[in-house]
Amino acid sequence: xxxxxxxxxxxxxxxxxxxxxxxxxxxxxxxxxxxxxxxxxxxxxxxxxxxxxxxxxxxxxxxxxxxxxxxxxxxxxxxxxxxxxxxxxxxxxxxxxxxxxxxxxxxxxxxxxxxxxxxxxxxxxxxxxxxxxxxxxxxxxxxxxxxxxxxxxxxxxxxxxxxxxxxxxxxxxxxxxxxxxxxxxxxxxxxxxxxxxxxxxxxxxxxxxxxxxxxxxxxxxxxxxxxxxxxxxxxxxxxxxxxxxxxxxxxxxxxxxxxxxxxxxxxxx
Length: 269
Known about the structure:
Blueprint: H1 3-37, E1 40-41, H2 47-51, H3 58-71, H4 88-94, E2 98-99, H5 102-117, E3 120-121, H6 127-131, H7 138-151, H8 168-174, E4 178-179, H9 189-204, E5 207-208, H10 214-218, H11 225-238, H12 255-261, E6 265-266
Parallel strand pairs: 1-2, 3-4, 5-6
């Protein structure tokens, strides 16, 4: 092939490559536009998805999720500014890329309203159910369960303020959502009377500190799993209790708790 032919062939190859690049560029631009057209719903997106938004990193993404879990769905995109760390500038950068999806929000609100009509019994609810209450997370939910196991059932909803970490503000948020009484559907009048009879019988039957197993000891007010095991460990090591006052020698049991238990326990004849 002569010099002129080589030049012509090279030019043809170059035009072919440039044409391919142009086509690829058009496809990439189309894909980018399509991705940009998909708005992120800040009421349903997880933290990983929110991180991808301009100006939002891991910390702000987690803050957005935490805010909506505590306060419910965002009604407008402007509500994002209520989230700690999210600025007006961040919101401006995200506009056009986010939505609160009115339809989804209405559905979530309806679900939340339905949930709100179901009162949570703080004397029977497990930690998971308590976590869902406004202002109560995993730590406070566990603290509520631990408090009632140690001190017995709450008599009024105000008693929840005695729980470590639960504030008057938390209680205010929960009012109308919590109760200390069982629903009528859960406990019939006959069932209530039977429960009262059982409780009365249990109260008059003293627990023998020298023969009771861990399960029986756990049921005593102020005695949980740990202290019950400590009582058994003490008597295994030191022999039977001579008097009820000997309970004070057990690790973790105070004089005040011993006094409280005197009408409920015995060391036998």
